[in-house]
Design a protein that fits this description.
Layout lengths: L4 H23 L18 H19 L13 H20 L8 H26 L6 E2 L21 E2 L1
Antiparallel strand pairs: 1-2
Helix pairs in contact: 1-3, 1-4, 2-3, 2-4
Length: 163
């Protein structure tokens, strides 16, 4: 195993925690109807984007185990998809924290499903503003208390938010 393998896993764990932190902000406090709102006729609804994020995280866990398994799910109701997301983050973090070898290089896990999931959390944040839903407040994420292993819906409060 390469010498910096543990550092790469810890970086992935920190990125998964970042997904949880940013995801909590983007996915909570939405109004009824937001889940199925569409910015355009060919666009995905936020609940479809959220289901896709869950699919990406499931894929990431399969890749960690050395298997290339992709399953596209049918979106569940919003609250169920939010729970699914945080369950998937927990499962992925637990694997990354374990001694099990990664089935694919950490860089590929990051460049594929993990980076894609970060992009889609941003899309949901943008959709909130476009839909007229309560927007996600801007934040100096550099100062945020994000730490590997904190991947649940409960997150540290924001240190420096702005409008």
């Amino acid at each position: 195993m390469p010498e910096n393998s543990d550092q790469k896993r810890e970086f992935l764990r920190h990125t998964v925690a970042t997904l949880a932190y940013r995801g909590r902000k983007a996915l909570t406090g939405v109004e009824p109807g937001f889940a199925t709102w569409r910015p355009g006729p060919a666009s995905r609804a936020p609940v479809e984007i959220l289901a896709h994020i869950g699919d990406l995280l499931d894929w990431a866990l399969w890749l960690c185990r050395g298997q290339h398994v992709w399953r596209e799910s049918i979106p569940l109701p919003w609250d169920d998809e939010v729970k699914r997301l945080f369950d998937a983050l927990l499962a992925l973090d637990r694997f990354l924290a374990s001694a099990e070898p990664l089935g694919f290089p950490a860089e590929r896990l990051f460049q594929g499903p993990v980076a894609d999931a970060l992009t889609h959390i941003g899309q949901i944040s943008m959709c909130r503003r476009l839909a007229g839903a309560p927007p996600v407040r801007g934040e100096n994420y550099f100062k945020a208390e994000i730490s590997a292993g904190r991947v649940g819906l409960e997150q540290a409060p924001a240190i420096r938010e702005f409008d």
